[in-house]
Write a structure and sequence with these properties.
This protein is α+β, with helices and mostly antiparallel strands. The chain has 23 helices and 20 strands. The chain has five domains: 153 residues, no CATH class; 162 residues, Sulfite Reductase Hemoprotein, domain 1 (2-Layer Sandwich); 76 residues, Alpha-Beta Plaits; 157 residues, Sulfite Reductase Hemoprotein, domain 1; 129 residues, Up-down Bundle (Four Helix Bundle (Hemerythrin (Met), subunit A)). The strands form four sheets. Strands 1-2-5-4-13 form a five-stranded antiparallel β-sheet. The chain has a five-stranded antiparallel β-sheet with strand order 3-14-15-12-11. It has a five-stranded mixed β-sheet with strand order 6-7-8-9-10. β18 and β19 form a beta hairpin.
Length: 754
């Protein structure tokens, strides 16, 4: 565990840029506490740092009309009415391409122990989530993650979400090449990038090394990159087919090909160009149509392609586009144990069933990938501590999460499998069934999501338990089916691309509500989410296991040799499917069987009273509002520095606050101004000061002079008086920027991007 004085112990390990960003967030947190920062702006800010409000249910119900006592894992605080500060929320943690080291795993376990409820949840975007985290704890949590190279920045909100990639990248038999270094480069290039800060909704990116498997799920992403090679002048070149406009949600869209082959040196500038087109033309008012898929649909792929490549030609050069490429040929993962065959090893009880489903033979002889099966995507902090030790011994720094909410240990020597299995079994992580019907994906549903209608996790747990008991006797065709469950129609559980999908809804029976699940059949998981299933009818939640049994039994009996589930459903036809479901749709009267009127894992009578406003993307907040909030937060840090007697720091922060405010104003008319003081000053002077747009009739132009004078004549040794004076001047300058923006906003909107 980390020493008590961990702030000092970790301080030197946090990259300066990350440390400053976290301090800015901490300042905004305090400003909001003092009611000096607009709630909408702060809501988008905290979402961009991965912090959601969450629902309180299943023993943690929270009614905003009442005062209750809640117990918090981080200290047993007692809070009153439901406000931002009262009830802990969810903290999402970004894990680009799912890559983890044992040390990072240990820190995640520590945070789950100290700030959460002792459970880490793996998401369908290879992230981790901690629930019941108090808002006041988040800056310290972020610092501890940053010290081991992990961030929560832009894990939520209207931003570029975690960049995902196949967990078998680099060891897969079918891939063109290892996409890991490209996914990592994309993740950190887009993180906090100026051109990704003005979206109307979230933006999801994925990489895949091959076309036929599902590990990357390119077809359901805003931006998907599929590894390709091409012979050019007798030389094999690496590149990618780039897909755009995919997505699930309430209305799923298949991604379309933007370009069949983009060379490896072009993928970052093309992604940047896509982001700029999306920011400029994407919907901002109606969030239900604000994803990239709707823009591609509206414009058509030909016009969207033209705009993207036109934008690409206008981009200012950025060395980061290719800075990582010289290291790509040298990217290797180092095993910790030599490759030795499994032959002759004593195999413990249960090993064979686990080996059959949970072990993948790498293309490198003698090495395997071991899948760690996490029911419902959950792993306890104790299990994570132990798994870190196991990984260190057998896999090294080669651990990844998967989009199916599991984890993998890569580069395991075959000879070590019996010992590794025994150690996993000892900590409850050796369940077989990976990539089988038992391996069910589920979103949080009514457990913690404000939009949850039915208990997706409760249903998934019940189905998993029933299926696991009979897995050995199931026909192979049934074993291979995919089940995915969402608590509402938003498809966070990816029900559209499952063989058998479910999403939560409700129906009324007399004076009562009954939890139901809509059945979705015929989705295609393979070929990167190759096709989407269709809803065929709703059944009561408590009858879903019977429905599943009826469908799978009939499929096993009627399928023709080599016939897929999708083909069988098509052959069966919707009319026959509907007739098959009909006996399961009836709901008995409440007095005859009240069990139908409660949900899985919840003894209370079912109600929609807990549903609230979802925070998946938050409200759309203007780019100026977000950037001026950073200026105000930096100014607040300057005030704190004065109280601490750190006058040089206060002077620098006040100057930085004015620069940020000036840049926020400039970017309303010129998006490409770099974060370089001389450039900001030049653009601010030309566009706003010389034109007298930035001009207060009572003060003339003196507020601008505060910035100019500090820029041209920085003090050599600021004292208390000079620092205090500059902090006060910075406050006046920021207020003047607000006034200027409000005055000219309507007249300059048309020139954005000029």
């Amino acid at each position: 565990m980390i020493a008590q004085n961990w702030k000092e112990a970790l301080g030197h390990q946090i990259p300066e840029e990350r440390a400053q960003e976290i301090e800015v967030f901490a300042g905004q947190l305090e400003l909001r506490r003092q009611n000096k920062l607009d709630e909408k702006v702060f809501a988008e800010t905290r979402l961009r740092w991965g912090i959601y409000g969450q629902r309180y249910d299943n023993g943690q119900r929270y009614d905003g009309q009442k005062t209750q006592t809640l117990t918090y894992p981080s200290g047993g605080l007692t809070k009153g009415p439901n406000t931002l500060w009262d009830a802990p929320g969810m903290q999402r943690i970004k894990i680009p391409f799912g890559g983890l080291t044992p040390r990072q795993m240990e820190v995640l376990a520590e945070l789950a122990d100290e700030y959460s409820d002792g459970i880490l949840h793996v998401t369908t975007r290879q992230d981790f989530q901690l629930h019941f985290v108090h808002l006041d704890d988040t800056p310290d949590l972020m610092r501890r993650l940053a010290a081991v190279g992990v961030t929560t920045q832009e894990a939520c909100g209207n931003t570029v979400r975690n960049v995902t990639a196949c967990p078998l990248s680099g060891v897969c038999h079918d891939e063109q090449f290892d996409v890991t270094p490209y996914a990592k480069a994309m993740a950190y290039f887009l993180l906090g990038h100026d051109d990704t800060q003005d979206f109307g909704r979230k933006f999801k990116t994925a990489f895949s090394g091959c076309e036929q498997h599902a590990c990357g799920l390119l077809n359901i992403h805003d931006l998907g990159l599929l590894a390709r090679t091409k012979e050019v002048d007798g030389e094999i070149k690496r590149g990618f087919t780039i897909f755009v406009g995919g997505g699930l949600g309430t209305i799923p869209h298949q991604a379309k090909v933007l370009t069949e082959f983009a060379t490896e040196d072009e993928i970052l500038p093309i992604a940047q160009a896509i982001a700029r087109v999306f920011a400029r033309l994407g919907e901002k008012r109606n969030r239900n149509r604000a994803r990239l898929k709707f823009l591609v649909e509206q414009l058509g792929i030909e016009e969207f392609r033209r705009l993207v490549f036109e934008e690409r030609e206008k981009l200012p050069h950025d060395d980061r586009w290719t800075a990582y490429l010289p290291d790509v040929p040298n990217f290797v993962e180092t095993p910790v144990r030599p490759a030795v065959s499994l032959n002759g090893q004593v195999r413990p009880e249960g090993f064979e069933a686990w080996y059959k489903t949970n072990v993948y033979q790498q293309r490198q002889p003698g090495y395997v990938v071991v899948y760690v099966n996490l029911p419902l995507g959950d792993i306890t902090s104790s299990q994570m501590f132990n798994l870190a030790d196991i990984a260190r011994a057998y896999s090294g720094d080669n651990v990844r999460t998967t989009v199916e909410q599991n984890m993998v240990l890569r580069w395991v020597s075959e000879a070590d499998l019996p010992a590794l299995y025994s150690e996993l079994k000892a900590i409850g992580l050796a369940e077989p069934g990976i990539n089988t019907i038992v391996d069910i994906t589920a979103c949080p549903g009514t457990d913690t999501c404000k939009l949850g209608i039915a208990s997706s996790r409760g249903l998934a747990g019940e189905l998993r338990q029933q299926l696991a008991a009979k897995l050995p006797t199931l026909p192979d065709a049934v074993k291979e089916l995919k089940i995915k469950i969402s608590g509402c129609f938003n498809s966070c559980g990816q029900h559209h691309i499952a063989d058998i999908g479910f999403f939560g809804n409700s129906r009324r029976s007399g004076n009562y509500l009954v939890p139901h699940f809509q059945l979705v059949l015929g989705g295609k998981w393979q070929q990167n989410g190759g096709s989407y299933g269709l809803a065929v009818g709703a059944v009561p939640s408590k009858r879903v296991p019977e429905v599943l049994e009826a469908i799978t039994q009939r499929f096993a009996q009627e399928r023709q040799p080599a016939e897929t589930f999708q083909d069988w459903i098509t052959r069966l036809g919707k009319k026959e499917v509907k007739a098959m479901l009909e006996p399961f749709t009836r709901v008995p009267d409440h007095d005859l069987d009240p069990s139908y009127y409660s949900d899985w894992g919840d003894t209370r009578e079912y109600s929609l009273g807990d549903i609230g406003v979802g925070e998946c993307a938050g409200e759309v907040v203007s780019l100026f509002s977000m950037e001026i909030a950073r200026a105000e937060s930096t100014h607040f840090e300057g005030l704190l520095a004065i109280d601490e007697g750190k006058y040089a720091k206060a002077d620098e922060l006040a100057y930085r606050a004015m620069l940020l405010a000036a840049r926020a104003l400039v970017r309303t008319s010129y998006l490409d101004v770099p974060d370089i003081p001389d450039k900001i000053i030049d653009e601010f002077r030309t566009r706003f000061y010389d034109t007298k747009l930035f001009f207060d009739p009572f003060a003339g132009g003196k507020f601008a002079q505060y910035l100019f004078q500090r820029h041209e004549n920085p003090p050599t040794n600021p004292d208390a008086d000079s620092a205090r004076k500059l902090v006060e001047e910075a406050q006046l300058f920021i207020e003047a920027v607000h006034t200027c923006e409000a005055k000219v906003n309507g007249s300059i909107i048309g020139s954005i991007g000029s």
